[in-house]
Automatic annotation (TrEMBL):
GO terms for molecular function: catalytic activity. GO terms for biological process: nucleoside metabolic process. It comes from the Eukaryota. This is Nucleoside phosphorylase domain-containing protein. The lineage of its organism: Eukaryota, Fungi, Dikarya, Ascomycota, Pezizomycotina. Residues 5-77 form the Nucleoside phosphorylase domain. Coiled coil: none annotated. InterPro entries: NLR-like, Nucleoside_phosphorylase_d, Nucleoside_phosphorylase_sf.
Amino acid sequence: MGGQNIILCHLPGMGVTNAASAAENLRRSYTQIRLVLITGICGAIPYLPNHGHEEVILGDVIISDSLIKYDFGRKYPDKFERKNGKEEIIEPPNSEIRGLLGKLKTRRFKDNFEREAAGVLQALQAGKGNECYRYPGAKNDILFPAAYPHKAYQLESLTNCTCFKCTIASDKVCDGIRKKDCGALGCGERTMSVQRERLAQSNILPSIHIGKMASADTVMKSGKDRDELAREEDVIGFEMEGAGVWGRVPACVIIKGVCDYADSHKNKKWQRYASATAAAATMAFVKYWGSNTYR
Ligand SMILES: [Zn+2]
Ligand SMILES: [Zn+2]
């Protein structure tokens, strides 16, 4: 592709350990590897506090220019299984990658990059049998306030609950409720959601955001902790594979599509579209990387 030799590697499962063993195998099998791109889906911060309150919507693409590992355990608004508070700053990418990402952050290159990625996405969506990668619709992109919990707002949803105590007033939410999607619980009422500017546009195209990715073997599921890490560490996305690959290969860039807002709410509608926007941005990125390197 684009005059580059590319190896595609499908991970056997999610998480840092799977990604780390894949990285080790790649490095052993292909000694000339110069760059590893990790693509897939991630969670995002809906408004980036240190980037002029930039709005991020589902299907946008997050690209890492740096990475932090965070290992707080599983995070829910009402339940912190905190293992330790240690955060580890990892080595920044090499100067070649830093230079390219710096260029792609400038308005002119970013606009072109987004246009090219959108073109690749459209071609991908038009492919036979690829209907599942189409935009799921603005009405399904629902953001709740960070403190608004994922709970049983409809009493019928409690019939399958394991504890029968997950009422609106109580603090705790059991696993049975946690695993249900917002529609079934009743938190999916639009009246409770945050109004988004970009969703009001007639033609919604994915934006690309470049910044610090947070990586851990656990899923970020708390709007409050999400916003805290965004504010304090300047994190712009959450994912689960980067920490396994970064540092094990000569260079690594994480390119992921936003499928949720890293809070407790659950909605599986966006995973395929987000994986497609990430794949499209990855193809566009390879082109820029190639022209940057061999010009
Ligand atoms: Zn329950
Ligand atoms: Zn919910």
